[in-house]
Amino acid sequence: MTERLPAVPARDLPVSAHAPGKCIVFGEHAVVHGAPELVFAIDLRTQVFVRNGPVTRLNADDDALRRNGYFRAAVEAVWRDRSPVEVRAISRIPKAAGLGSSAALVSSLVAAFGAATGGIDRPSLAQRSFEIERSAQGVGSPGDTSTVVAGGFVAVNGGPGDPIWTIRGPERSWEVRRVSDPGWVWVVAYSGLPRSTADAVRAVGARLAESDGPELLEEFRRVATEGIDAVGRGDRSATAGLLRRNQDLLREVGVSHPRLEALLEAAAPVAEGAKLTGAGAGGSVLALPMPGKETELVRRLARAGALPFVVRPSPEGTALVEG
Ligand code: PMV
């Protein structure tokens, strides 16, 4: 049966909403070109608090509409010329780390503004959040925004069953499906190197336009399809092998980095599989630790110079803070 996620109900200002970050398991970059992707929401969240104020601003910055493209795009798309709002945002998701900080900011803003304008159903929250993130970023897929809106594990353009929603973009559409959580503990490590998603996406687009591009994209598609299946049936060793294979492909399209490779090497003795996660060229790595070796994996990644943390998939997507 198709899961029906609850709508965001109507609320008067002040209103507060929160959204999780995310971590991509398989298929980043290729998803922009229509291939499958597997993503899960993580237990680090962004929370926004919206109330009436003298001018529209974010975290007391009067110039935020000019300076923060995500904030501007969200206000323009959902709030428009309603009365000015004072917005506070706090986040535990590291920025520019490939962990969904922009998707979480955008979807919690859309949820809060949506609540204050009569409520918003969840497919519309996902569609709006994608449009806003994409307009601020210029490129990209709905993988991040749909995952932080839905929570849990989400397959884009893959997996069995009926879609929970379909996201429409200017050139293509993406179908979003639910995948069950196998209940594993994952480790993410931020390299400390921030990077631009848009630049990495454009560089991969250029690489995939070369003569062997279609072949590479087909291989991305195969790995993600098998990966969605492996995670869905809880097969750790198949998942681990596919994580390594996905990393080979990401390296091939030029988004790995010596710092990320050093982290993957440090992780290898105690990780069943690992790869970069997100746009790459910096950002973070994701590892599936050998059972019982989670702490040692965290220690090894910290010694290699990263900021590691154990992440647990968050079943809860974007929601209002009640009370
Ligand atoms: O911005 P990041 O690092 O979370 O990466 C997003 C994943 C990409 O596939 C590279 C881009 C996209 O929009 O899907």
Task: Give the gist of this structure.
The chain has 323 residues and is of the alpha+beta class.
What's the structural blueprint in terms of helices and strands?
Layout: E1 15-26, E2 37-52, E3 57-58, H1 64-67, H2 69-79, E4 85-91, H3 101-116, H4 122-137, H5 143-150, E5 153-156, E6 165-168, E7 173-179, E8 186-190, H6 197-208, H7 213-232, H8 236-252, H9 258-267, E9 271-277, E10 284-289, H10 294-303, E11 307-311, E12 319-320
Parallel strand pairs: 3-4
Antiparallel strand pairs: 1-2, 1-12, 2-4, 2-5, 5-7, 6-7, 8-10, 8-11, 9-10
Helix pairs in contact: 2-3, 2-4, 3-4, 3-5, 4-5, 7-8
Bound molecules: (3R)-3-hydroxy-3-methyl-5-(phosphonooxy)pentanoic acid.
The site of (3R)-3-hydroxy-3-methyl-5-(phosphonooxy)pentanoic acid has 16 residues, from α5 and α6.
Strand proportion, as a percent range, falls in 15-25%
Largest sheet: 8 strands, mixed
Give the termini separation. Answer: 32 Å
Structural class assignment? alpha+beta
Question: So how many helices?
Answer: 10
Assign an overall shape.
Answer: globular
Give the integer mean of the pLDDT values.
Answer: 96
N-to-C order of helices and strands: EEEHHEHHHEEEEHHHHEEHEE
Calculate Rg over CA atoms: 19 Å
